[in-house]
Amino acid sequence: MTEKILDTIESPADLADLSYEQLNRLAFELRAEMIAATSLHGGHLAPSLGSVELIIALHRVLDCPRDRLVFDVGHQAYAHKLLTGRRKQFKTLRTYEGISGFPKITESAYDAHDSGHASDSLSTALGYALARDLDGSDATIAALIGDASFTGGMALEALNDIGRANTPLLIVLNDNGMSISPNVGGFSTYLAKVRMSDQYTQLRNHVEDAFNASGTLGRLLMRGGNAAKESFKQFVLPGATFLEGFGVTYIGPVDGHDIQTLEEILRDAKALEGPVVIHAVTMKGKGYGPAEKNPALFHGVGPFDIASGTPKPKSNANPTWTQVFSDELIKLAEDDPSIVAITAAMASGTGLSAFAKAYPERFFDVGIAEEHAVGMASSLALAGKKPVVAIYSTFMQRAIDQAIVNVGLQKAHVVFCLDRAGLVGDDGPTHHGVFDLVYLRMIPNMRILAPSSDGELRMALRCAMALEGPVAIRYPRGSAPVAPGACEPWQEGHAVKVRDGADGALLALGRMVDVACEVAEVAARQGVELSIWDMRWAKPIDADALRDAAHTGHIFTLEDGVITGGFGSGVLELLSDMGESCPVRRFGIPDTFVTQGPVDKLFEVLGLDAESISAEVLAAYQS
C-alpha cells in the first residue's frame, strides 16, 4: 500500500522537499481528511476545500511560526490545521475538548490569532507588521482574506491604513465569489469584472512581450512607466486599479488552485518593499462533488453521508426557530407592505431566503456589513418602513454604536431578530450569542423579547411589529419547542405565570422556561413548590411578576446569557428600585468565554442543566 504523503507531514517544513506532483497529491489527501472529519461532526467544509492549494503555497513560502499567517474568519483553515501537527486530533474538530474549528492561539504556535468573525485579518496583520518593524525583524506577515470579508468596513479601514504605513505585508485575496451564499455589492461586482477580464490578461501579456522585444527602452517603460501602465489598465479594464488606489501593489487574478504559480508569485511578492494584494480565484467546495454543486449548503454543514452528500437525519423533527421566524415574517408581510427585511450576508442562515423570493423588492442583503445594515435600517424606519434586521446574536455586537445612536436615540422602529442567541454549540466562543442581553439592556428605548416556544415566537414577532421604537427578539439555534396550547397575546412588559407555587419562584427567560419546568418537577418531588414565570420580556421586566415572586421568599432567575449585567441583574435592580427585599439566586453564563461542544453538554458543564439547577435550588431550602 502506497504511503500517503500526508503521513510524512509533521509541520510545514516537511513541504519543502516535495515535488509539485506530490503537492497536488497532498492537496487531494487533505481534502479527503476534511471530508471524512466533517461528515462525522459537521463543520465549515466548502470554504476549507476551496483554499487548500493557497495554504500549501503559503506554507511553502513562509517560515511559520517565525513568520505569521493570519486567517480572516478562519473557516477556511482546515488544511492549515492538518499541516501544522494536528492531524491526529482532526477528527475531534468542533467537539467538546477537541480542536477548534477556527485558528486558536492556545491550540498551536502556528495560529497567529483567534479568529471567527469577518474582516479583522488586515488589522491584525498590520499590527504584527508594525511590531515586526519596531523590533527590527525581517519576518514576513501574511493575511488570507475572502472576497466577502473584504466588503466589511473594518477590512477597508485597515486597507486604507496599510497603504499609509507602506510596510511589507502579503495579502492573499481568496476570491470564490461567495460568502455563505453568492456575494452581493459593488466590490463583488468589481471582482467579477476582474475575474472575467481574460482580454485584459491576454492584452497585457501581448503588450509586455512587445515592450520587452523592443529592447532596453521598452523594458524600462514596463518597469518604470507607471503612468503609461496605469493608463493601459484603465483603458482595458476600468476600475482595475481600485486596490492600488489604497497604495498597495495588486497582482492578479491568478489561479488559486495552481500551487506552482501561486508559490512563484508569493515569492516575488515577498521580495517587494511595500504591501501587496494577490488576487487568487478559487472554487468554493472544490474537490467534493456535492459541495461544488451546492457550496452554500456545505459552507457550514452538519454530519452527512459522504457518498451522496445527504445530511444525516436529525433526532428532533420540530421546525427550527429560524423556520418559525421565516414563516411568520412572510405571513405578516403579506398584509403589511411596509415590512422590509435586511440581512448581512446571512440570508440562508437567518431564514430570509424565503422572504427574498417572495418579496425581492423588499429584501436587502448588504454583505458583511452589520454597521451599515443597522444604520440603513434606522432611516428606513424613520421613512415609514418597518425594517426587520435578521442577524446572528454574535454578529449584532459589531453594530452596537448604530443600535445606540441611529436606532435608540432616534426611537426608530427597527425590529432586530437575533438568531443563535445563547449557546450555539460546536463553533465555540466566537459564535455563542451570550452577550446580547447585556449590550441591548443598556440602550434607552430598547425592548427585548425572549420567546420560549414556536407559538411564543410567532406572537412575539407580531407584538414587535405593532410596537413603536426599537425592539429586539432573541431566540436560540435548533428546534423550537412546540407550544402546548394557544399562546396568550403579548403585551409590553407583561410576563406569564405558567405554574403556581408558594415556596419560591423561578423567573425564566426564553429557552430556560423548559429548564425551569423540569426544575419545578424535581423540587415538587422533594416537597418544595415553586412557581414559574415565563418572563417573556428582558426589558422592560414585569414589576408585578417580581412583586408576586418576592412574596414567596425565594427568587431564582434563569437565563442563557452572561450573568454579568444580564436579565438576573435587571431583576435585582428592579427589586431594589421597588424596595422589595428577597434573596435572589441567578443562573446564567459565568464570567468566562465558553468553549465548544454540544449545547446540552455545555449546559451541564456550566451548571445550567435542570439537574444542576435543581440541586442548587433545593440547597437553598436546607440552609
What is the name of the CATH topology of the largest domain?
Rossmann fold
Calculate Rg over CA atoms: 27 Å
At the first level of CATH, what is the class of the largest domain? Alpha Beta
Output the strand order for the largest sheet.
7-6-8-9-11-10-15
Strand content: 5-15%
Cα separation of the termini: 67 Å
Overall mean confidence score, pLDDT: 90
Q: What is the number of strand segments? A: 17
Describe the structure.
The chain is an alpha/beta fold and 623 residues long. The protein has three domains: 20-197 and 237-293, Rossmann fold, CATH 3.40.50; 321-474, Thiamin diphosphate (ThDP)-binding fold, Pyr/PP domains (Rossmann fold), CATH 3.40.50; 496-619, Rossmann fold (3-Layer(aba) Sandwich). It is 40% helix and 14% strand. It has 24 helices and 17 strands. The strands form three sheets. A seven-stranded mixed beta sheet has the order 7-6-8-9-11-10-15, with helices on both faces. Strand 16, helix 22 (567-578) and strand 17 (584-589) form a beta-alpha-beta unit. Helix 5 (121-135) packs parallel to helix 6, helix 13 (321-335) runs parallel beside helix 19 (454-466) and helix 21 (543-550) crosses helix 22. It is globular and about 75 Å long.
